[in-house]
């Protein structure tokens, strides 16, 4: 019985390893051999082969799918797990999988996870809990611009002209999405400052109303 169990485990292990051969080969073609992971140069090469820009939101979606922990880097374990879930083992298959990945992220059950991940992915320093305004503006444009263009344009304009906030935390970031989803725009008639909105959004609404009244 022990021998049979051992044989089965060995066969299972070999099958699992074989299943990753093409995925690993693909990883090796982009990885920095001295680091043992795909670094920013490797991601740039990957983007070139995929025919997308490095700032394309689908690359951020791929990082989310891989559960990448460090911005600009993919480990072999992250690569294996993510590509296995995507059922791809070549660049051509990955290119074809991108539209399906967009659909997956767009599902309500996944979007909140992706949106929160996008913020955490920008935390590049240990113990960092906030992101600078310039990076937040770029991120807002990347992850919300397609869905909520009018809101995002004005929110970015406000963030760039205000001087009270130099950084944005996760709670504020999450409430930016909630604001876009829940508040009538541009009249803002259902915005209630007595509800649990962060002060930065109260200030944004005041700025919007002043801007509107000046026309």
Automatic annotation (TrEMBL):
> Residue ranges of the DCUN1 domain?
18-209
UniProt xrefs under InterPro entries: DCN-prot, DCN1-like_PONY, PONY_dom
Q: In terms of domain of life, where is this protein from?
A: Eukaryota
Fetch the PANTHER family from UniProt: DEFECTIVE IN CULLIN NEDDYLATION PROTEIN (PTHR12281:SF20), RP42 RELATED (PTHR12281)
| Protein's job | Neddylation of cullins play an essential role in the regulation of SCF-type complexes activity.
Q: What protein is this chain from? A: Defective in cullin neddylation protein
